[in-house]
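Posting this for the archive.
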Amino acid sequence: MRLISTALTFGVAFAGCAGERWPEPTPVDPAQYQRDYEQWRQDQQQSANVSLSIVGIWPVPQGTTAFGSDGTLPIVLPAPAPVRTGVLTLVGDAVTVTPASGTALMFEGGGTVPPNAPLGLYETTLALDSLRLQLVDMGDESPQRLYLAALDQSRPASVMPIETYPVDQRWRVPARFAPFAAPKPVQVQDVRGGTVDYLALGQLVFRIDGSEHRLTAFGEPGAPQLFVMFRDRTNGSTTYGGFRMLSPKAAPDGWTVLDFNVASNPPCAYSRFTTCPLPPPENRLDAAIAAGEKRHPAAQGFAG
């Protein structure tokens, strides 16, 4: 996901009787900001298009799992896939695929899939007419929770244009990073009833209309960006009922910016065939964030 990369510097404002220092971001170059914002919109549209083209996702348990268009199989591919397309075999964390006899199952880059071909996580894409099959996982659990995802390239792009609030510079909010004494391993719930492992680095402290709020931020120590999932009072009305996301710059000097103009929907806002983590309970804001990506009324994602 490409995020706005405009360099942000801060001036210092003084607020409150005690002279509390609270920085304000200096104005950005409007033309560059608009270009970056339009690129973000294009990236979000592409993400929505990919999500909308996903036509199925199925767990891959240990042992053998048959897949094809036969409705009695554990993995039922959409027609016109062959009745019996092949078999997946999971032993430990290793997955192989064996096509059914006479099935033209190909590697996306070219070549027929041989028996017992290794199926790498996110690395190997299988092609069957317009269908693309890929092995995905949910989190860093051991043993891994593996799924087979199917994408249909015949679905037209941009059939569901994303919707956003108008850009408003007041939603570029300075935030103070309050690091934890040490990064905290956290198990975050996901939409499929499991958990995903994250590393909580600290909290971002910021103000909206004079009220102070906090959001737990995830990431890796030393990484250039943080990752934030949040809920707010617009969820379920003007925005997706689940949550939205931000990836602010890391704050080595203690301050960063939460630019809610680029608050993004997760893939599960558009498709129920996706795998998304959920925000921790403390990341529910008692404020209406009227900025960023809206919900699309026709989207058939996970209910939030």
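The chain has two domains: 55-152, 163-283. The chain has one helix and 18 strands.
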